Automatic annotation (TrEMBL):
It comes from the Eukaryota. It is found in: Membrane. Residues 131-265 form the Fatty acid hydroxylase domain. One of its GO terms (biological process) is lipid biosynthetic process. This is Fatty acid hydroxylase domain-containing protein.
Length: 309
C-alpha cells in the first residue's frame, strides 16, 4: 500500500510532478494492499488462458483451407469435444493448483523486493528486466525440461503434457500438477535476481504465458512479429518436440534456441529442416524444368508433403 493517498502528498514525496501513468497508478493503488495487487495475477492468468488461444482454436475447428497451409501438422485435427476437454482440464488445474499457489506465494514476492511504490519504472528499465527474466527462465527451464524427459520424470510427470502430439493453444498449461509446481521455479528466479515493480511482474507473467500459448499454437505464421526476435524458437521449434513425442531428446528450450544448439539437443530438428529444404528444392526444380502442366497440382500437394515427411 502506498504511503501517501493524494496527488499532492505523492508529488511532495517525489519532489516533482507525477507523470500521467504515475497518476493513474496512484489513483488505482493508493487504497489497495500489496497482497491485493499481487493477486491480480490470478485474474490475468485466467483471462490469458481463456481468451488468447481462442483465435487458434477457431482456426483448428474451422478447417479453413486458407489457413491450413500454416498448420505445422495438418493431418492431426482435434474435435470440438477434444478442445473443450483440454480447456476444462486446464481450468481445473487453474482453480485447484495455479490459483491457490498464487494466493499463498505472496510472502516470497514480498521477500525478494517486488515493490508497488512510486516512481514507476521507465520503459527502458522494464524492457531490460523482462529480458533478464526471459533469459533466466529459458536457461533454467531447459535443464528442468531435460530432467523431466528422463525415464522417471517422463513416466511419472511429463507424459501428461505430451498427450497432445500436435499441440493447440489451450494445451500450453496442460500438465501434471507436479510439473506446474516445478516449472514455477524458473518463472520466479528472474524476478528474484532482478526485482522490479509490480507492473513489471504482471507484464512478465502475462508475456510468459502468451509466449507459451504461441509456441503450442500448432501454426507457424510467416508474418508473426516473433520472427524478428533473435534465437526465438516459436511454434515450429517446439512443435517438433511434441511431434517426436515419448522420451524425446530434442528441442527442450521454452523460448530461445541457443541452449538446444549449444548442447546439441536440436540435431534431429536441424536434420529434418535440411531434409525438407532438399525436398522443396527438388520439387521446385522439377516444376521449373520438366513439367509446367503439373505445377498447380504439385504446388498444392507440396506443403502437405513437406509438413508430413
Amino acid at each position: 500500500m502506498l504511503p501517501y493517498k493524494t496527488l499532492q502528498e505523492a508529488e511532495a514525496f517525489l519532489g516533482r510532478n507525477l507523470t500521467f501513468p504515475e497518476t493513474i497508478w496512484l489513483n488505482y493503488s493508493a487504497n489497495k494492499s500489496d497482497y491485493f495487487l499481487y493477486c491480480h495475477n490470478i485474474l490475468f492468468l485466467f483471462l490469458i488462458f481463456s481468451v488468447v488461444p481462442l483465435p487458434l482454436v477457431f482456426m483448428e475447428l474451422s478447417r479453413s483451407s486458407g489457413l491450413d497451409k500454416f498448420k505445422i501438422q495438418p493431418k492431426v485435427r482435434l474435435s470440438s469435444a477434444d478442445v473443450f476437454r483440454c480447456y476444462k482440464d486446464v481450468m481445473s488445474m487453474f482453480f485447484f493448483i495455479v490459483g491457490p499457489l498464487q494466493l499463498v506465494s505472496y510472502p516470497s514476492i514480498k521477500m525478494i523486493g517486488i515493490r508497488t511504490s512510486l516512481p514507476l519504472p521507465s520503459g527502458w528499465e522494464i524492457l531490460m528486466q523482462l529480458a533478464v527474466y526471459f533469459m533466466v527462465e529459458d536457461f533454467t527451464n531447459y535443464w528442468i525440461h531435460r530432467f523431466l524427459h528422463c525415464k522417471w520424470g517422463y513416466e511419472k510427470i511429463h507424459r501428461v503434457h505430451h498427450e497432445y502430439t500436435a499441440p493447440i493453444g489451450f494445451a500450453a498449461p496442460y500438465a501434471h500438477w507436479a510439473e506446474i509446481l516445478i516449472l514455477g521455479i524458473p518463472s520466479f528466479l528472474g524476478p528474484a535476481m532482478a526485482p522490479g515493480h509490480m507492473i513489471t511482474f504482471w507484464l512478465w507473467i502475462a508475456l510468459r504465458q502468451i509466449e507459451a500459448i504461441d509456441t503450442h499454437s500448432g501454426y507457424d505464421f510467416p508474418w508473426s512479429p516473433t520472427k524478428y526476435i533473435p534465437f526465438y524458437g516459436g511454434a515450429d521449434h517446439h512443435d517438433y518436440h511434441h511431434y517426436v513425442g515419448g522420451q524425446s531428446q530434442s528441442n527442450f528450450a521454452s523460448v530461445f534456441t541457443y541452449c538446444d544448439y549449444i548442447y546439441g539437443t536440436d540435431k534431429g530438428y536441424r536434420y529434418q529442416k535440411k531434409l525438407l529444404a532438399k525436398v522443396t528444392f527438388s520439387a521446385m526444380y522439377f516444376l521449373l524444368e520438366y513439367d509446367h502442366g503439373l505445377s498447380a497440382a504439385l504446388l498444392g500437394f507440396l506443403p502437405c508433403l513437406i509438413l508430413n515427411i
